[in-house]
C-alpha cells in the first residue's frame, strides 16, 4: 500500500497490478521512468499498429478510460484512481501515448460540450484507439497567448472554410481528427471571437509538414490550412464560445501532462542503476566524486519534496477539489528536476554521454532525455507562465498587465 492509499485504492492498485502482470510485458529495469522521450520510431506504421493493439486490449479489459463515465465505455472512477493506474502501468511496456491527446483532452472536452450525436460519433473509436487526435491551438505568433491566434474560419452555407497556420502540432501526421481553435469574428475582443471545431485532418486543404527536433525524432508538425472545410455540425459548443471550450481542453492538458509525469517517479532509481554500470565499466563509482555526490543529493531532496507535493495534490483530488496552483508548482518542479537529472547523467558519462544508441550506456536513452526534457518545460505552460500563475495565485503578486483584453481583435496591431 502506498502513502495515503485507502483500502479501496489499495484494492484497485492490486487489481491493476494483477492485470498488468498477467497481460503486459514488463519494462526492463533500465527502461523505467520516462527517459526515452521524443525518440524516432524506425518503423512508424509498426509502432502505431502496436499502439492500436494495446489500446484495444485496454479498452476490452476496462482500463482505457479510468475517469470516463461508464456510459462512454469508461470506469467512472476518480482522478486518483487514474494516478494509481499510471503508477502501476509505468513499469510495463504499454506504448499507448499517441492516444493521450484524444482520451486525456479531446474526450473530456466532447463530453462537456458535445451534442449526443457528437459524443456517439467520436468517443467510442477514440477510446478503442481506432482514431488518433491532435490539438491545433498554437500558432507561430500565438503560443502562451493562444487567444491571439489568427487562423480564420468563415461560414459558407453548411460549412466553415478554414485558412491559416498552426505549429508544434504533436502527432498531426498520424491523426484522423484535430481539435481546432480558430477565429470566427475578428471584430470583438480576442477571447470572444474564437470557435472550436473538430476537423478532418485527411482532406484537401490540410497540409502537414513534420518538424525535426534536436532528439532526431519528428513528433511535431506545422499544419497549413488552405480553404479546408469543416461541416457546421462539427462545431463544438456555439460559435464564439471557443475560448470556454478551449479552457476545458487546457485544464485537462495539465492533468494529462501531470499524469504522464507520474511515470517519471522511477527515474531516480534508473539513474542510480546507471551509476552502478558506469562503476563496473570504469572501476570507480561516480559518487566518489564530491561534486557528483552533491548534485545527486540535491536531486534526491528535490525528488522527495515533489513526492510529498504530489501526495498533497492526490489528497486534494480525493476530496473532489481541483488543485490549480499546486499543479503548476508540481509541473515546474518536476520538469526542472528531470532536466537536471538528465544533465547529471550525461555529465557522469563524460564524452561517452554523446554516443549514439548502439554504443552508449542504456541504449543512448540518457542523451535523448538530455535533449528531450527541455520540451517538457514548454509544453502545457512554459516555466515562466507557471511562475506567473504561482506569483498571482499563491504569492498574491499583482496580475499580468493585459492591455489588449477588451480591444476588438482587428484593432490589435499584428
Ligand atoms: C513537447 C511539446 C508539445 C507540444 N504540442 C502541442 C500540440 O500538440 N498542439 C499545440 O497546439 N501546441 C503544442 N505545443 C506548443 C506549446 O503549447 C507552446 O510551445 C507553448 O504554449 C509556448 O508557446 P510558444 O512556443 O509560442 O512560446 P511563446 O509564448 O512565444 O513564449 C516565448 C518565451 O516567452 C515567455 N513568455 C511568454 N509570455 C510570457 C508572459 N506573459 N510572462 C512571462 N514570460 C512569457 C515564455 O515563457 C517563453 O520563454 C507543444 C510544445 C511542446 C514543447
Any chance you could write out the topology, listing elements then pairs?
Elements: H1 7-23, H2 44-61, H3 79-89, H4 100-113, H5 116-127, E1 133-136, E2 152-156, E3 159-167, E4 177-183, E5 194-200, E6 206-211, E7 220-231, E8 235-236, H6 242-262, H7 267-282, H8 290-318, H9 325-349, H10 365-376, H11 383-393
Parallel strand pairs: 1-4
Antiparallel strand pairs: 2-3, 3-7, 4-5, 5-8, 6-7
Say what oligomer this is: single chain
CATH homologous superfamily assignment of the largest domain: Butyryl-CoA Dehydrogenase, subunit A, domain 3
CATH class of the largest domain: Mainly Alpha
Share of helix, binned: 40-55%
Termini Cα gap:
55 Å
CATH topology (level 3) name of the largest domain: Butyryl-CoA Dehydrogenase, subunit A, domain 3
β content, as a range? 5-15%
Mean pLDDT: 90
- Count of DSSP-assigned helices: 11
CATH architecture assignment of the largest domain: Up-down Bundle
**Classification by helices and strands:** alpha+beta
Q: What global shape is seen?
A: globular
List cofactors, ions and other ligands: flavin-adenine dinucleotide
Number of domains: 3
Order of strands across the widest beta sheet?
A: 1-4-5-8
Rg (CA only): 22 Å
Q: Helix and strand succession? A: HHHHHEEEEEEEEHHHHHH
Ranges where pLDDT stays below 50 over 5 or more residues in a row are none
**Main sheet: strands, sense, barrel:** 4 strands, mixed
Amino acid at each position: 500500500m502506498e502513502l495515503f492509499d485507502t483500502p479501496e485504492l489499495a484494492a484497485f492498485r492490486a487489481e491493476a497490478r494483477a492485470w498488468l502482470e498477467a497481460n503486459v510485458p514488463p519494462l526492463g529495469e533500465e527502461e523505467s521512468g520516462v527517459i526515452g522521450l521524443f525518440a524516432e520510431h524506425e518503423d512508424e506504421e509498426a509502432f502505431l499498429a502496436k499502439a492500436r493493439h494495446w489500446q484495444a486490449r485496454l479498452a476490452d479489459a476496462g482500463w482505457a478510460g479510468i475517469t470516463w463515465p461508464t456510459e462512454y465505455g469508461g470506469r467512472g472512477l476518480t482522478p486518483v484512481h487514474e494516478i494509481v493506474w499510471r503508477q502501476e502501468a509505468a513499469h510495463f511496456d504499454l506504448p499507448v501515448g499517441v492516444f493521450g491527446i484524444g482520451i486525456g483532452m479531446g474526450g473530456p472536452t466532447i463530453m462537456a460540450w458535445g451534442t449526443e450525436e457528437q459524443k456517439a460519433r467520436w468517443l467510442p473509436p477514440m477510446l478503442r484507439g481506432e482514431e488518433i487526435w491532435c490539438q491545433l491551438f498554437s500558432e507561430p505568433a500565438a503560443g502562451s497567448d493562444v487567444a491571439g491566434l489568427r487562423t480564420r474560419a468563415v461560414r459558407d452555407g453548411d460549412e466553415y472554410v478554414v485558412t491559416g497556420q498552426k505549429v508544434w502540432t504533436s502527432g498531426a501526421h498520424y491523426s484522423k481528427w484535430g481539435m481546432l481553435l480558430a477565429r470566427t469574428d475578428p471584430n470583438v475582443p480576442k477571447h470572444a471571437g474564437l470557435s472550436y471545431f473538430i476537423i478532418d485532418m485527411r482532406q484537401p486543404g490540410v497540409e502537414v509538414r513534420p518538424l525535426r527536433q534536436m532528439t532526431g525524432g519528428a513528433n511535431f508538425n506545422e499544419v497549413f490550412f488552405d480553404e479546408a472545410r469543416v461541416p457546421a455540425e462539427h462545431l463544438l459548443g456555439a460559435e464564439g464560445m471557443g475560448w470556454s471550450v478551449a479552457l476545458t481542453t487546457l485544464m485537462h492538458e495539465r492533468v494529462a501532462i501531470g499524469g504522464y509525469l507520474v511515470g517519471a517517479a522511477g527515474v531516480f532509481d534508473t539513474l542510480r542503476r546507471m551509476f552502478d554500470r558506469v562503476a563496473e565499466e570504469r572501476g570507480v563509482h561516480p559518487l566518489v566524486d564530491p561534486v557528483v555526490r552533491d548534485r545527486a543529493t540535491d536531486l534526491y531532496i528535490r525528488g522527495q519534496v515533489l513526492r510529498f507535493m504530489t501526495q498533497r495534490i492526490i489528497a486534494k483530488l480525493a476530496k473532489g477539489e481541483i488543485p490549480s496552483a499546486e499543479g503548476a508548482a508540481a509541473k515546474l518542479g518536476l520538469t526542472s528536476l528531470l532536466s537536471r537529472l538528465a544533465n547529471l547523467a550525461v555529465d557522469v558519462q563524460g564524452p561517452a554521454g554523446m554516443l549514439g544508441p548502439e554504443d552508449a550506456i542504456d541504449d543512448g536513452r540518457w542523451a535523448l532525455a538530455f535533449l528531450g526534457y527541455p520540451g517538457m518545460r514548454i509544453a502545457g505552460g512554459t516555466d515562466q507562465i507557471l511562475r506567473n500563475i504561482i506569483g498571482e495565485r499563491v504569492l498574491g503578486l499583482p496580475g499580468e498587465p493585459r492591455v489588449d483584453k477588451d480591444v476588438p481583435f482587428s484593432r490589435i496591431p499584428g
